[in-house]
Amino acid sequence: MSTQKSRHSEASTTESLLNAAERLFAKYGYDGVGMRALADEAGVNLGATTYHYGSKEKLYIETVMRRFRPIGEERIRSLRQAEKAASGKPIPVETIVDCMLRPPFMTVLAHPYFPALLARNLFMPPPFMQEFMAKENIPFTEPFVAALARTLPNLPPQVLYMRDMFAGGILLMVSSQLSKMPMRKSPDFCELVLKDMVTFIAAGLRTESTISGSDLPPMAFSRPLCGTDD
Question: Which of 44, 137, 150, 211 has its CA 20 to 30 A from that of 15?
Fold first, then answer.
């Protein structure tokens, strides 16, 4: 019984620390928050903070990754289901975009501090996060660019990758604004917003590009895109 209580206490402490870190890092950024402030916000002593995470850097990484990785995994799971349903045929653009947007959209509505944390991490990241996030993002991005390339073969992968970033920017802005509104608690309203966003982005993805793939620098893919020609 005492062992179970100890495990529950540890889980509660780590959850409190992660929730506090998400709030404070979202508000003040990595450099604006100290370990003591994190401990005070979580309602734990400073020793517990260093015991569980060792350093502010490790706590920051874990705070971002606890939502980022599940979002990415759910996106890939949804895309694989869509591929299976398509039976080898190209997946409709709207379906691909829905698989891209739905998991992060629903997550940020449930956790309203996460959009601000993600925005800070994208636009003003701590130096140690830049390469780390680039590596983390590749396996969650490549499959979508590959799926879009099969559906929209007239567009070069470099253009599709760039448009994937456009879609991410739209998602982040809409989610950030909506997360502050009472309507975020209305599933019907959020579904309407998501569907309209999917329609808008899908239309943009279909549009002929004003630039060619050769006009863009090589994108940082770790391996060739599956399903596309070299």
Answer: 137
Residues 160/221, Cβ–Cβ less than 8 Å: no
Q: How far apart are CA 64 and CA 57, in angstroms?
A: 11
How far apart CA 19 and CA 43 sit, in angstroms, is 11
- What pLDDT is stored for residue 1 in this prediction? 44
Does residue 144 contact residue 152 with C-beta atoms inside 8 Å? no
> Domains of the chain (ranges plus CATH)?
1-54 (1.10.10.60), 67-215 (1.10.357)
Cα distance between the two ends of the chain:
60
Q: What are the angstrom distances between the C-alpha of 136 and each of 61, 122, 223? A: 11, 13, 14
What are the b/e assignments for 188-203, b being 16+ CB within 10 Å? eebeebbeebbeebbe
- Residues of the chain with pLDDT below 70 are 1-11, 212-230
Sign of the CA dihedral running 56, 62, 67, 72: positive
pLDDT in tens, 47-98: 998 899 999 999 999 999 999 999 999 999 999 999 999 999 999 999 999 9
Provide CB contacts within 8 A for 216, sequence distance 6+. Answer: 156, 158, 159, 162
